[in-house]
Structure formats: structure tokens, C-alpha cells
Amino acid sequence: MAETAASGSPPAIAGALRRLSFPALAAQDVAGVHAALAHELVAAFGADHVHMTQIAPDRATGRGVQLVPQDDRITPAATYTHTLDGPSGVVKVALSGVPLVIEDAPASSEVNQVLVQRFGVASAVFLPVTFDEGPMAVAVPCWREPHKADWRELAQMMLMTDQCAATLAVMDMRASLNAQAEREAALARAASALNARLDLQSVLETLCHEVDLALGGDVTGFYLGDGSRGGVAVAGHGMESGSDWYGFVMRPGEGVAGQVLQTGQPVVSNAYQAEVEIPDTDELRSVSTAVGVPVRWDERLKGALSVGFRSMRAVTDEDIEILQAMADLAAVACSNAEAFERAQVAARTDSLTGLLNHGALHIRLREEIARVTRTGEPLSCLLMDLDHFKPVNDVHGHLVGDQILRRVADAVAEEFRTYDGLGRFGGDEFVLVLPGVDEAGATEAAHRLRRSVSQAMSGEALAHVTASVGVAHWRDPLTSGELLDRADRALLVAKRRGKDQVAVAGHQTEAELARLEAAGGEPSALLADLWDLVSQCDHPREVLARLPALLTRSLKLADCVLVHPSLLGNTQELLRRIDGGGIGRPTLASLREALAVTEPLPIREGPGAHAAVALQHDGEMHGLLVMRSAESPFPLASLRLAELIGAQAVTALIGQVGGASRTAVGALAAAIDARDNYTHAHSEQVVALATGVARRLGLSDRDVELIRDGAMLHDVGKVAIPNEILYKPGPLDAAEWAVMREHPVIGERIIRRTPELVGIAPIVRHEHERWDGEGYPDGLAGTDIPVGSRVILACDAYNAMITARPYRSPMSTREACAELEAHAGSQFDPDVVAALLAVLAHQPAAV
Asked: C or N terminus of the chain, fewer CB within 10 Å?
């Protein structure tokens, strides 16, 4: 006892008091001041450990911490929560503000025996740390052996606690002034920050951030909900991004936020861990004090805003006022954000089906392309069109049509993932954006899409409504518009194949579509110009050389050049990038970047837009057409026509330099098919008859082969005949016949450009000569006419007679045979007619 008293001598106490003022000067926190007090109590009075209990403002609870000496330092050893409603020295001192000396703690009824036993206390002194309205903490130096503190020690201890209280008062005043300034600044900052946000999530996250800054909170959360449903944790600050707290549902009455939602009033808890049931998250597990306020907008309770502090903190009326003021500011911003969101949803939603609309689909596709460009993931796009839908509107009315569209939309939405981009592109067309799906997966999805429509229509009187789907897989450098265009091109092929089909965009699909599109309309006019050009060229390569001038004139381009493959670097990479069609870009530099071409392209930079089309066949590059249009973006119709004409030019090239007669015939037959579907189908039927007649006449295998090829190409000259003549729905006048009669000569000229086909050139030239010499172009008669021409003339005439034309009905087989017999010896070779009749006798009535 004497040593202990000596250690608490006046000089030692004076030094302790000076040291206790240092935390205030250094602006330490409350825990630091408490630790300093405990250190001096241990040093001056030989205490084994010191307990510091911080009293909540409501005097109902306290948070205790055991501080022990270790290597000349004081460290926390244990923490616990007091419920200040039983026998306890802390309660007595907190209520009275008078120190309490307990010499025999195990036998005392004034102390909490649970804590006495837990910490092995023999003697203790309970010292109030008092400032403002009463004790804010109780310091309890403890001894494991009995210790008697006389009045001098007690006075010295009180001097230390008073110095500690003064230090805390200075810190509190400084914090209060800082808090007031921070609150005022926070309100101004929050008003500016919150009104700068137009989406609800951003508003709520900004609110949490600004509240933390204003109140000095450790964690802040916003719970969206109401008193009946509870609140969902949707926005926070001080939380880990992957925390389990996000999405947690706080039930009504549960925790601070749940109580706020239930009562609609502010709620404060100074013993958060003991008083409320909380989610098991690291962020909330260490919260000691929490305060929450309601958030209302549009005259309804919409959520609760809750702030947590890891240290016990006095929540003042000013704190609640600033918190409620910030919540009210946020309420205005939230109301504006919800209104903006509703407007945005309406702007991007199709009003009939509830799916994304045309504009929103483009935005979604651009976003997905930007994402997969970074990640390298696959991306596909499906374009679906309802088959036989127009008659539904025409017969049953648009109300029934709208019901079908809604039913299809619902069926498709149920079939696919929620994050797939599904929208109505317009009319009865739907688009499906498939992130992370490659071409094979997209093809399978297209069949599912088609089947979902069939199932939606099953059992209906309108079950004939089916779906055709075009599939396009994204590859660099396609834009959203180009990807949709490829899907649209594939959809056209699916429609042309008979509907209720799936087609995948690619080079083969484009080739098929080019053949289908070439019959009739503007493409046929251009093809006529092209094949007229082909007939005028002396060398096959001259066709490609003169192609840019033809396209510039016909498509009204500002410029067009043909780039030789040797100037293009890696042509295989280029073909991969523009497989399935050409591409357009706003500038020449962006076009080069899209093509991955490092060398300059020999075309003048200028206003408008640029585009490129590859001239290729079976993976072999024959050149690159680079074009500039005065319009921006580059007109898609012009780009497609350039692709069509370019493909036909390559067909002519391959046909004229092919390594075998079969290749040449196939290439030129494809040209006829692209020019006129009727002509090609007619030629195939003539081939079958002519081959049979040639064999019945006993001609050699070589002659039979020449006649077969001549029959396939006998109308090749018609590729140069103008549309208005070729497709005229009635008989031709004299001037028009003069033009039409040129097609055998043009055909001969085209064929003679191909060395392998020279043998059939005379057959093609003379296939309209008559046996009596009244034919054209040279008026040959009898056996002066090549036998192949005589065979083809008769077979051609027979097939024309039994085929329906726009200006007349077809003859029956019997009537056509009678016509052949009637003109044998005048128009036709009699032997050929006899052979043809014999062939027909062994065939079905309709050829």
C-alpha cells in the first residue's frame, strides 16, 4: 500500500495530468483518450487492468472495454455491452456522478458479479468521466489482489478523470464545430450532387455517400420498401462491392431500418448488436450505434436511410435533422429519377408487345458489340418475320393481328433468357440479340424461335402463321447496322426457300440471294449493262477493269476504284472480315481500319461515306471495289447493287478463264439464272429434250455434249437485253423485235471469250435459223444450219408452247406436238421433229 501511494505522489500526478492533455492537442479519438487515462492509472496506482465503459446518451446501455498493460503499452483485451438495469458499479456512478470504491469486489452487492468473476477482480474503483450533462464514461481501475484506495488516491484519480473529461470536452467542442460546418457544406454539396443524377440507383448511391461524409458514419445503407413489405438493401456506402448485404431484406420492425419503415419515424440505437437482428455481414457486425430516418416521395413512404457507427456515438437532434434534410433532398431527386425512368422505359418499349422497340434494339446491339469487342465473347443476332401474316390483317382485321403479335411476343419471351435482347423491329418482325452465343448456338436458337411461334399458333384457326428466321453472327468489324442487315439478308433467303425456314448469313447465302434478287427491277437493268459490257470486252480481265466506271455511272457514286489483291496484304483476313457482304464507313481511315488494310487505298478522300466490296470466288480474291458516295452513311441499296454486279462480273471472269468446259458452262449458266429465272428454268427443260433428241438421232458423244451445253447457254445473250423488252407482258413491236433478234449474236460473242466453249458458239448463234431459210441472224437453210441449232430450235419452240407467259395461256402437250408436225419442213428439220416426238412419247405429258 505504501509503494502504491508513493507512486501516486504529487509530481507523478502532475506529469500524468500533462500527458493526459496531449491527446486533445493531437486530436486523438475517444478510444485514444481512454487508453491514455488507463495507462496513467496503471502507472500511478499499480492497477492490473482498467475497464472503460462508454455510457450511451440514453443511460440505458454502455459499451465496456478491458485495457491491459503490455510492453509499456495499453492494449484492448476484451469488449462487452452493459445493460444498465441491474446491480452494477457502472450504473451507480453513471447515475450519481460520484466515485465508488469497492475494496472486496467478490463480496460486494454493488457490482456486476458476472464481470467480477470473468475478469478476476479483487478490488476496484469506479470513477465518473463527466462533462456537460453528466458522466459520459466510467473508468474502473481493477486489482487482482485486495487494494485499499484512501482519500488521497481517490482525489488524485479524480484529477486524472477530470483532465480526461476536459480533454474529451475540447475534442467534443472541436468535433461539434467541425460537424456543424461539415453539415452545412454537406447539405449544399448533397443538393448539387443529388440533382445532377437522373437514374434512381445513382441518386441513392450518391445519397449514401453524402450522408457518410456529413455525419462521419462508417457504413450507410438505403432500404427500398415500406412498412408492409419491409425494405431491400439496394444502395450503400462503406460496403464491399460483393457484400452479402446487398439484396438483404430487412423485415418490418427488424433492425433500425425495419423500425423506421414500420413507424415512419426516425429511430436511434446505441446498442446495435444487442438490440436488433442484423444480417451476418462484416460491415454491420461491428456497428455500435445506428440511426435511421424515413424517405418519402410522391406522398408515399418509399424507404429507410440508415447510418452506422463502429464506435458508440451520441446521436444529437442536429444529426437527425441533417440526416432527414438530406433524405428530403434525395426524395425530390428520386421522384425526378423515377419520372425520368418511366419516360425512358416508354421511349424504348414497343407499346403493343412490351418488348424493346426499333431504336432500343439498335442501342442494345451497339452496347453488346462494344462489350464483346473488349471481351472477345461471341455475339449473334436473329431476325424473325411472321409468314402469312398480312392476310390475317386483311381478312380478320388489325385487332386480331395485334393479338397474334402479343401472343408471339409472350411465347418468345418465355423461351429465352431474361438478359437476351428481345424486341419488335417493326410490323411483324422481331429481333433477338444473343450475347455469348456462337453461330451454331444461334442457329439452334433460331429453330427454337421458329418452333415457339408454331406452338403459340397451334390449335388456332390461324395456325398457318409460321416464322422465318435469319441468323447473323458478329465478327469484327461489323457495326450494329451491318449485323442487322446480314440477318435481314439471311431472312430473305429463308423466305425465298419456302418460309418457315432458318437461313444463316454468309457468303453462300449471299450468293443464293444474289441469284434470287437479280430477276426483274433495277438489278436486272444493271445486269443488262454488265453483260453488254462483257460482250464488248476482248479480254476477260477487261471486265473487272471497266467495272468501276459502270458502277460509278449506274449507282451515281462520287468515285469507285478497283484495288488489285497484291496491294491488300492478308487477303484471307480481309475476306474473313467482310464475309457475307460489303461494309461502309463514314471515312476512308475508318474503312481501312475495318478492313485491317495498312497500305493506303487508291481513292480520293472526300465528303460523304466510303464502302468496300470484295470480288472473290471460292475464297480466291480477284480485287476489292472501294467506293465513295456523296451521301452519308453509304446508301445500303447502292452497296447491295455493287455486291450483285461485282459477283456477276467475277462469274463472267471465271466463266471465260475457267480450266474446263464444265466450269465455264456452270459459270455462264449462273449468269443466266441471275438475269432471268424463267430463262434459266426454260433452258434446263430444253437441255433435257435436246440431249434425248441428239441421242435418238445417233449423234456422237462429243456432239451430244456440245448440244447439251448449247441448250443450256442458248439464251445467254438475253443477259444484255433491256428489261422493258425482256419482261414486256405482251407481244413485241417491230423495233423491239429488232433488239431481241440480236441476242443470238450477243450470246455467240460472250461464249467466244471462253476458249473451252468456242465449239458451241455456232450452235448458239444459229439456234433461231429456220429450215426454210426465213430465220435469223444469217438466214441459213437446211443442213447449212448446225445440227445442234436445229435440235435446240425445235426443243425450244416446244417448251415455249407448253409454258405459260404473261400474254398467253400454255398449249397442251398434244396441241404443241401438232404444231411441230405442222411446221416440219418449213420452220423445223423434219428428222429432228420426228426424233423429238419419239422422245416425248416416252415422257409424261407435262415436261
From this structure: N
Distance separating alpha carbons of residues 708 and 687, to the nearest angstrom: 6
Strands 219-226 and 230-237: antiparallel
Q: Do 123 and 87 contact (CB within 8 A), yes or no?
A: no
777: cis peptide before it, omega within 30°?
yes
Could you tell me the three cell numbers for 421? 435482347
Which residues touch 758 (CB under 8 Å, ≥6 apart)?
751, 752
Do residues 724 and 691 lie in contact, with contact meaning Cβ atoms separated by under 8 Å?
A: no
Q: Which residues contact 508 (CB under 8 A, 6 or more apart)?
A: none
How confident is the model at residue 12, as a pLDDT? Answer: 64
Residue 277 CB contacts under 8 Å (≥ 6 apart), including other chains: 254, 255
CA distance 292 to 220: 10
| Distance between CA atoms of residues 12 and 20, nearest Å | 12
Q: What is the DSSP string of 318-379?
A: HHHHHHHHHHHHHHHHHHHHHHHHHHHHHHHB-TTTSSB-HHHHHHHHHHHHHHHHHH---E
By CB neighbour count within 10 A (0-12 exposed, 13-18 middle, 19+ buried), where does 436 fall? middle
As a whole number of angstroms, the distance between CA 37 and CA 124 comes to: 15
Q: Quote the pTM value.
A: 0.48
Identify the residue whose cell numbers are 445493460.
83
Rounded to the nearest integer, the mean pLDDT of the chain is 82
d(CA 385, CA 430): 6
Alpha carbon of residue 463 to chain centroid: 33
Condensed to tens digits (0 to 9), the pLDDT of residues 712-736 reads 888 888 777 776 777 777 788 888 8
Cell representation of residue 212: 457518410
Residue type, 31: A
Residue 718 in contact with residue 672, Cβ under 8 Å?
A: yes
d(CA 198, CA 344) in angstroms, rounded, equals 11
CA–CA gap between residue 684 and residue 525 (Å, rounded): 24
DSSP letter string, 260-324: HHHHSS-EEES-HHHHS---S-HHHHT--EEEEEEEEETTEEEEEEEEEESS-----HHHHHHHH
- Please state, as a whole number, how many other Cβ atoms lie within 10 Å of the Cβ of residue 846: 8
CA distance 112 to 106: 9
Calpha distance 302→227 (Å, rounded) = 9
Tens digit of each residue's pLDDT (9 = 90 or more) over 310-335: 887 778 888 888 888 888 888 877 77
* Contact (Cβ atoms closer than 8 angstroms) between residue 834 and residue 840: no
Are 647 and 511 in contact by the 8 Å Cβ rule? The answer is yes
According to DSSP, the residues that pair with 100 across neighbouring strands are 126
100-102 and 73-83 beta bridge pairing:
unpaired
Q: Spell out the domains of the chain, with CATH numbers in brackets.
A: 2-175 (3.30.450.40), 196-346 (3.30.450.40), 380-497 (3.30.70.270), 516-657 (3.30.450.40), 662-841 (1.10.3210.10)
Please calculate the CA angle 471-474-476 and round it to the nearest 5 degrees.
155
Whole-angstrom distance, CA of residue 506 vs CA of residue 489: 9
Q: Which residues 6+ apart lie within 8 Å of 375 measured at CB? A: none
Q: Under a CB-based contact definition with an 8 Å cutoff, are residues 231 and 258 in contact?
A: yes
